[in-house]
Amino acid sequence: MQRSASRKRVAVTGASGLIGSALVRSLRADGHDVLRLVRRPARTADEVEWDPERLYVDAAGLVGVDAVVHLAGAGVGERRWNEAYKKEIRDSRVLGTTAVAQALASLAEPPEVLVCGTALGWYGDTGSRAVDEDAPAGTGFLPSVCVEWEAAAAPAEEAGIRVAYARTGLVVAREGGAWGRLFPLFRAGLGGRMGDGGQYWSFISLHDEVAALRHMVDTPSLSGPVNLTAPEPVTNREVTAAMGRVLRRPTLLTVPAPALRIVLGDFAQDVLGSQRVLPGRLLETGFDFAFPTIDEAVRAAAR
């Protein structure tokens, strides 16, 4: 991973999550100062209190930061979707982003950049069609959330802050997230394709996700949407085969679509949907993927 030329002071929301905690470790390992936004009174010098539901951020704690990476939000795959949880997904992202953007805009000397984590959900179901950052928003619940989510950062943009939207794909990691649920199943020989397996999954290794977020912070030309996904999206059938090869387990089972709908609720349509999304802007700005293929990403996660 490339090191920044100078020491930075970086504030991170969602710092206890899968991506946030890995980002904090990476930044600190390279000598950067990291502030973590926490949803309780700050207890240490590296904490800043915030409450996204109340649109509150202790803006005084952000004085002097060079960059903010906003990753907080209710996990899309954490629970079965119903109307109440869909509201929590939406509110946690839109209100949280609004709170952060307004707090940064209020500073006499705002940070250089706000990297706002969003999602490939912006594009909806693209089928087998490959899309990049120029593609319009899709239709459905997640695309509508992503549109509101990114729009909520407007106060930061209006204050002259460079705002970049990290539209993240499926992060390949065994420690958490959607992929963290797959590893135990495949290790037990219970893994298999979902539905017909023909839907595209746009993935990225956890290592490359963190490196890409840092690349976004350090690259002045990056603003607006940036897709954080490996260069070659693969189908769910190919993911299943790769998991079997790397973990040396059979992958004969299939999870039928009706069963997914029972377990996941409305989220099943997104699991069964296809997203073939390309990282156009990362590649244009010289980002180098450490684990560009699905086999490499799974091996890195399985170590």
TrEMBL record:
A Pfam family annotated for this UniProt entry: Epimerase
Entries under InterPro entries matching the protein: DUF1731, Epimerase_deHydtase, NAD(P)-bd_dom_sf, SDR39U1
Record-annotated DUF1731 domain positions: 255-300
Domain of life: Bacteria
NAD-dependent epimerase/dehydratase domain mapped to chain residues: 10-221
The family this protein is said to belong to: Belongs to the NAD(P)-dependent epimerase/dehydratase family. SDR39U1 subfamily.
Listed NCBIfam families: yfcH (TIGR01777)
Protein name: Epimerase
Source organism of this protein record: Streptomyces cinereoruber
